[in-house]
Amino acid sequence: MTALPVTLADVREAAARLAGVAHRTPVLHSRQLDDLVGARVHLKCENFQRIGAFKFRGAYNAVSRLSEAQLRKGIAAYSSGNHAQAVALAARELGSSAVILVPADTPQSKKDATTGYGAELVTYDRYTGDRVAIGNKLAADRGLALIPPYEHPHVIAGQGTAALELLAEVDDLDTVLTPVGGGGLIAGSATAAKGLSPGIRVVGVEPEAGDDTRRSLLAGERVAVPVPRTIADGQAAEIPGELTFAINRRLVDEVVLVSDEEIRAAMRFAFERLKIVLEPSGATPLAALMTGKLPTGGRVGAILSGGNISPERFAELI
Question: DSSP per residue over 212-280, as a string?
Fold first, then answer.
């Protein structure tokens, strides 16, 4: 069997590199949620990570491995928002600069946060433009190192450190649950989880409008969907990455879907009962649990991927 592009050793190496740089985010527990779900649920709150989302883990792990010469030239990335902020902050932390390609309709709060970390923004139309082609050309024209949001082994390994921390803190989990966009978080999480506990279940959650990974896993090959129109903008992927799919087709057990209304209800529950703010993508695992998309019972670890949302947008959604 072909070796996977990321291993448990890679995730552990990323964790060592991130020690003292990334936050070790809290794991919350709610008796009310347990009663509602019919399981013991542990919530890994990456909304408390630097830049407000898990993306800092992978971005810093990748950027920190660049040569001094490349850091002087600068870094490019493309992103719907959180990876943009993550690369911008990682570049600033390591004395480099960043140019980020973002969709024109990226929430203004995410654009402002990215420029706040010192990055230059270049916009494109996500419904008509090919961000990979535009991003590659941008990097080539300016001599920048391109750090993609998920198609990179160091990015995937960095994202897996969230699950590594969760499994170190909570013993004997039966299931690990994560959002799925391009597939980097779940690929890294599955690498860590299956490496430590081969019998554990790894389940992804996608918005109903953007179920490219679920379709791809069922088909056994990468399947594209129309550009998703969903409130979960961080999960608006059209097709899984090649690297991430190579991992996920081997290690992910299932992908379940949630509607925008179910995501809104989960955001409200998190705010009212858990006293935390989640962006729509960060709330999808909670939505899957609350709506019974998973079998009841056992011990579940869910990664709540981020909380980057403006007060105005949050109020509008809930």
Answer: HHHHHHHHTS----PPP-SS-GGG--SS--HHHHHHHHHH--EEEEE-HHHHHHHHHHIIIII-----H
- Region 65-76: mean pLDDT is 97
pLDDT at 237 over 90: no
Measured distance CA(53)–CA(89) in Å, rounded: 12
Cα-Cα-Cα-Cα dihedral sign, residues 229, 234, 240, 245? negative
Positions marked active-site: 55, 80, 206, 210, 212, 305
Residue 27: per-residue pLDDT: 98
The number of beta carbons lying within 10 Å of the beta carbon of residue 277 is 19
Cα dihedral 56→85→231→316 (10° resolution) = 120
pLDDT value for 157: 98
Q: Of residues 107 and 69, which shows the higher confidence score?
A: 69
Q: Mean pLDDT for the chain?
A: 95
Helix axes 8-18 and 184-196, enclosed angle (nearest 10): 110
> What pLDDT is attached to residue 295?
83
Q: Read out DSSP for the chain?
A: -PPPSS-HHHHHHHHHHHTTTS----EE--HHHHHHHTSEEEEEEGGGSGGGBTHHHHHHHHHTTS-HHHHHH-EEEE-SSHHHHHHHHHHHHTT--EEEEEETTS-HHHHHHHHHTT-EEEEE-TTT--HHHHHHHHHHHHTPEE--SSSSHHHHHHHHHHHHHHHHHSSS-SEEEEE-SSSHHHHHHHHHHHHH-TT-EEEEEEEGGG-HHHHHHHHTS----PPP-SS-GGG--SS--HHHHHHHHHH--EEEEE-HHHHHHHHHHIIIII-----HHHHHHHHHHHTT-S-SSSEEEEEE-B----HHHHHHH-
